[in-house]
Design brief:
Blueprint (H helix, E strand, L loop, with lengths): L6 H13 L3 H14 L4 H13 L3 H12 L5 H14 L3 H13 L5 H13 L3 H14 L4 H13 L3 H14 L7
Helix pairs in contact: 1-2, 2-3, 3-4, 4-5, 5-6, 6-7, 7-8, 8-9, 9-10
Length: 179
């Protein structure tokens, strides 16, 4: 407590505690930082993650909601909202958060993959294909997603889309004769 208002020292110590899985200690420090500066984006973000790790999902979502008001990292905020909603088995809320991340112009491939997977599980196959396609534009090296797209295109008799992907898959793994 030698530096009662020194945010940098508290932040560094909170990060160390988080890395060591001392979530109670890191949570206290993040809360102290946000009491000093209620708009300290990094502390709020990490605080929401600590709440999530402690299974305090409502507090995590409330903290992420605070960040939603002013954060520069809005797509990442929405991604973590989606993950918390999934932990709480709120698939529809997770889908909504992921769509907000996309509206915020994210380039984070996990957003597209997670949304596609959720939509596919909900039986929204065509919309899922759209997000698998967007994911593959960002992460063109994911062989499993490319195979999935080929299978979906063939199931829809969309050979114009399937053939170039088959060529790409063969280029990526020329020894795999199952493609």
């Amino acid at each position: 407590q030698a530096y009662p208002k020194n945010i940098d020292v508290r932040l560094l110590l909170a990060k160390v505690y988080t890395l060591l899985n001392y979530y109670d200690k890191s949570r206290v420090l993040y809360e102290e930082i946000t009491a000093i500066d209620e708009y300290h984006e990094e502390s709020l973000f990490h605080l929401s993650l600590v709440y999530g790790a402690q299974k305090k999902f409502k507090k995590s979502l409330a903290t992420l909601a605070r960040l939603e008001e002013f954060s520069e990292r809005l797509p990442l905020v929405h991604l973590y909202q989606a993950k918390i909603h999934l932990e709480m088995s709120n698939d529809m809320d997770a889908i909504q958060a992921l769509r907000k991340a996309i509206e915020a112009k994210t380039e984070h491939p996990e957003v597209y993959l997670l949304l596609a997977t959720l939509l596919e599980a909900k039986g929204q196959r065509q919309e899922a294909i759209k997000y698998y396609e967007e994911y593959s534009q960002i992460n063109a090296e994911d062989i499993e997603v490319l195979k999935k797209l080929v299978d979906e295109y063939i199931a829809d008799s969309n050979y114009d889309k399937a053939l170039p992907l088959l060529g790409e898959l063969h280029r990526m793994d020329p020894t795999n004769h199952k493609i």
